[in-house]
Amino acid sequence: MGCEVSWFAALCDDDYEFLGVPEERLLSSWEHCRAIALGAEDAGYDNLLLPSGYAMGIDSVAFAAGIAPLLRRMQLLVAVRMGEMWPAQLARQLATVDQMLGGRLTVNIISSDLPGQGLESAPRYRRTLEYMHVLRELLSGKPVDFRGEFITIAVDPPRLRPARGCPPFYFGGLSEAAREVAARAADVFLMWPDTMAGVAAVLADMRARAARHGRQLRFGYRAHVIVRATETEARAAARRLTSRLDDRAGDAIRRRSLDTGSAGVMRQDELRRMADSDGYAEPGLWTGIGRGRSGAGAAIVGDPDQVLAKIRGYADLGMEAFILSGYPHAAEADLFARHVLPRLDHGPLLPRVAIPSAG
User: Fold this and answer.
1) Residues spanned by the domain of 153
2) What's the predicted TM-score (pTM) here?
3) Which one, of 79, 328, 89, lies nearest residue 190 by Cα?
4) Measured between alpha carbons, how far is residue 302 from residues 88, 137, 191, 293, 348 in Å?
5) pLDDT over 70 (residue 165)
6) Which region, left, alpha or beta, applies to residue 295 given φ > 0 means left and ψ of -120 to 50 means alpha?
7) What's the confidence (pLDDT) of residue 346?
8) What is the model's pLDDT at position 355?
9) What gap in Å lies between CA 181 and CA 112, rounded to an integer?
């Protein structure tokens, strides 16, 4: 079974040799993140996630425009927060980046609070659904006349539009509201790390929800990875990564995130609580990373055969896209590319065909 294998560009000051111990050389900057991107391109990854933050790091859309002319074949998965920018302007920006990439743009839809604001989960996801609808219509080259709870807009699409139709929307979230938005309007449903049983349960639920709206979803898995020549070395690398992490510093890092109270983050916390004394929630799934970051908080850990088997196990459940990362990002990207990537049947999730939103 083929899959899309992506790496992660640490735009949000999330790069370390020792988790939770900032180093100037690893802070987000154009130079540092450009090196990660070009390394991922040379290593053969299919896509690159450009995360979106506010307090930390650099802007995802601006970085995408800067790096696009330097890439030859790799896609970009650009994270954008719904509500941060008026949808007509965002559509024009994304269409421009897609043109610069030669049609290789993919979009990660984010539904977190906006900087300086707070909104309850239910209305926040209603806002996200409206933005996704309007954005998809405009990126598909259609005029929009929409009057909703959060958006009132009547506008023609920008002249510039993606050559292959609307880029696919990647979207994740475990709350009831998030799952319904994904079922109605996403193309690829993303999950953070979970056990095999946990993944299977969520995928079954999401397939059923999408079917109720007359749709089908594809699925992606966002996780960290630590691969070494032997399992002993991989587990030692995991221990080393968190060996200087102070719990108070880790708590502070997690609180900086705008999604710190989400259902997805709470599930990552639950995985850490259920893990064994070494931090493993199940064989090969290490939860220690969640001590020092919000969001995806676990890593696939092992030798090349073990990591490959774990990924294939998730693929057998229905995962078609893997968004991986490691610390430091450039070094771990190279290790995974040398030890595992050539053994995977992988490529972009193409052809790119927009899936209509439901009602």
Assistant:
1) 4-225+311-343
2) 0.93
3) 79
4) 45, 44, 21, 21, 25
5) yes
6) left
7) 95
8) 43
9) 13
Other Cβ atoms within 10 Å of 158 Cβ, number? 17
Q: What is the pLDDT of residues 14-70, one digit of tens each?
A: 999 999 899 999 999 999 999 999 999 999 999 999 999 887 889 999 999 999 999
- Using the CB atoms, write b or e for 253-286: b if 16+ within 10 Å: bbeebbbeebebbebbeebbeebeeebbbbebbb
Dihedral sign for Cα 107, 108, 109, 110, please: negative
Asked if 221 and 314 count as a contact pair (C-beta separation under 8 A), the reply is: yes
Q: Does 254 map to a domain? A: no
Residue 345 has pLDDT above 90, yes or no: yes
Does some domain include residue 283?
no
Q: Which residues contact 118 (CB under 8 A, 6 or more apart)?
A: none
CA neighbor of 355 nearest in space, from 216, 219, 207: 216
Whole-number average pLDDT of the chain: 92
Cα separation, 40 vs 191, whole angstroms: 22
Q: Is the pLDDT of residue 203 over 70?
A: yes
Q: What pLDDT digit, counting tens, does each position of 98-149 carry?
A: 999 999 999 999 998 887 888 888 999 999 999 999 999 999 999 999 999 9
pLDDT at 359 over 60: no
Q: Where are the alpha helices (DSSP H) in 101-221?
A: 121-139, 176-185, 196-212
Compute the distance between CA of residue 210 and CA of residue 208 in angstroms, rounded to an integer.
6
* Separation CA 67–CA 76 (nearest Å): 9
Is 253 a member of any domain? Answer: no
Reference 77, options 172, 180, 204; nearest CA is 172
Distance CA 61, CA 80 (A): 8
Q: Say which residue, 260 or 173, is predicted with more confidence.
A: 173
Q: How many domains does the chain have?
A: 1
Of 37, 12, 40, 39, the C-alpha closest to 26 is 12
Indicate whether 281 belongs to any domain: no
Q: What is the CATH number of the domain that holds 201?
A: 3.20.20.30
For residues 278 and 40, give the distance between their C-alpha atoms in angstroms, rounded to a whole number.
30
